[in-house]
Amino acid sequence: MIKRAQAKKLFSVSLIDPRVFTKDKHHKADDKPYGGGPGMVMKAEPLVRAVSKIKVSPKRKVIMLSPRGKQFTQQMARTLARYQSVVLIAGHYEGIDARVKKILKAEEVSVGPYTLTGGELPALIIMDAVARYIPGVLGKGESLEERRITSGEVYTRPEVLLHKGKKYRVPKVLLSGDPKKIDEYRSH
Predict the structure, then answer these.
(1) For the domain that residue 47 is a member of, what is the CATH number?
(2) Same domain, 114 and 153
(3) Domain of 160, in residue numbers
């Protein structure tokens, strides 16, 4: 879906490596945290420089991905789809220098009550969830599941599936052709 949406110019994705925006010879985008502790912290300078190179649009949202952030929701995806651009900063290690949030007026967002090794997967999750709300990406507006009746159980052919000697059938109501009964079945 995302690839087709990009081909139709409905949606675009750009990846920026913060190491390109470092000034040291080793291109370090992370450093030890002040106050000590394990792990490394993403440095503020390269991240701020990287985001400043992105074309600024009047309706832009900057998000820092963090397990401590506000929980990402379907409503948030709908809201983000209204922005001209959404910048997702994928953290790593022990996190991102807190000054990045202040300087870029970023919102911290989490995709769930768990910690991952980095922010790349959360960025993909948010990108996919937001893209669905951009007109034309899914093809039909009815494809947004939360806008239509669904039981959560769906079936396809064959009508009877034989597995290890047992028959698994499609519910008769779905074969009835009666839209009222089908909608009633799906709403339960």
Answers:
(1) 3.40.1280.10
(2) no
(3) 149-186
Q: Is the four-CA dihedral 72, 106, 121, 68 of positive or negative sign?
A: negative
* Chain centroid offset of residue 157 CA: 32
Q: Both 68 and 108 in a single domain?
A: yes
In what helix (H) or strand (E) does residue 90 lie, and over which residues does it extend? strand 85-90
User: Token pair for residue 38?
Assistant: 């394990």
Q: Please tell me the total count of domains within the chain.
A: 2
Whether 107 and 158 map to the same domain: the answer is: no
Amino acid at 73: T
Q: 89 Cβ partners below 8 Å, 6+ apart? A: 47, 51, 62, 63, 64, 65, 96, 100, 104, 106, 119
Distance CA 148, CA 144 (A): 7
pLDDT above 70: residue 146: no
- The predicted-structure confidence for 103-143, as pLDDT tens digits, reads as follows 999 999 999 999 898 999 999 999 999 999 999 898 766 55
d(CA 51, CA 71) in angstroms, rounded, equals 23
Q: Which residue type, as a one-letter code, is found at position 3?
A: K
Between strands 30-31 and 41-42, the pairing is antiparallel
pTM of the model: 0.82
